[in-house]
Amino acid sequence: MKKRIVFSLTIILAILVSCQPPVTFDKPQPADAKALNGFPKRIQGKYLSSRDSSILQITANSLVRIYDYDQKIHISQLDSNQQLIGDTLFDLNTNRGMAVKMEGDSLVQHVKSSDTIFTINALNVLKKFKGYYFVNNLIPPETWQVQKIDLSQGILTLSGINKTEDIAQLKTLTETVQDTLPYVFSPTKQEFKKFIKNEGFRDSETFLKIKE
Q1: CB 21, CB 139: distance < 8 Å
Q2: Nearest by Cα to 92 from 104, 82, 101
Q3: Residue 10: enclosing H or E segment and its boundaries?
Q4: Domain residue ranges of the chain, discontinuous segments joined by +
Q5: Are 130 and 196 in contact (CB under 8 A)?
Q6: CB-hemisphere CA count at 13 Å for 73?
Q7: Considering just the CA atoms, what is the radius of gyration of the chain in Å?
Q8: Alpha-carbon distance 70 to 181, whole Å?
Q9: d(Cα 65, Cα 84) in Å, to the nearest integer?
Q10: d(CA 154, CA 40)
Q11: Which tens digit of pLDDT belongs to each residue from 148-167?
Q12: Is 118 exposed, middle or buried (0-12, 13-18, 19+ CB in 10 A)?
């Protein structure tokens, strides 16, 4: 049986966005730190991912990840439920088609999509603490997913909390005994400071600022 390869990044993004994060907080972090009205000018701009060809764009009030590139697969990797008719690849399960072009024995699809990571509003909160920016996205009904942003010499690092080392450290610092996902933590400002100092937010991706 041929291994199916999903020929569309938008499907992958939809799955990622819908996933419940493993770690949330009962209030925006750091606790008691003042919320900001927007990202300062020095951090606004476009940044190229070191992991792929996506662009992270930071505006005054949002973080948006932009994908714009060609994706290629060999025709032998198509699933039996996919059928190529002319320059359109159809999914027989959904009767939807996508435009492609042939290059030898391969199909090329142009991927263009965007994923809004964060937008400042009444529910999603931006804070600054110890030189870092923290974006707090509300996870209904009343918990927040937190990511850390660090900008140094044109290199931006976007970090989250997914690794077991981070979870173990938070459980120790906050004396949390919960054993089921998602974890909900309630650190004090000092506990959160210790978490940062002890290399918390280990799940990181770096971006290089694009000069415009």
Answers
A1: yes
A2: 82
A3: helix 9-18
A4: 21-45+122-212, 62-119
A5: yes
A6: 17
A7: 20
A8: 37
A9: 30
A10: 15
A11: 999 999 999 999 999 999 99
A12: buried
Q: Angle formed by the axes of helices 189-197 and 164-174, to 10°?
A: 140
Give the tens place of pLDDT for each residue, 178-189. 988 899 999 999
CA 156 to chain centre: 14
Say if pTM beats, i.e. exceeds, 0.85.
no
Q: What is the pLDDT of residues 103-119, one digit of tens each?
A: 988 999 888 899 999 99
What is the secondary structure of 14-60 as a DSSP string?
HHHHHSPPSEEESSSSSTTPPEESS--GGG-EEEEESSSS-EEEE-S
For 4-23, the pLDDT digits (tens) are: 444 444 333 333 334 679 99
For the beta carbon of residue 115, count every other beta carbon within 10 angstroms.
Answer: 17
Structure tokens given for 212: 């415009």
Tally of CB atoms within 10 A around 133? 21
DSSP 76: G
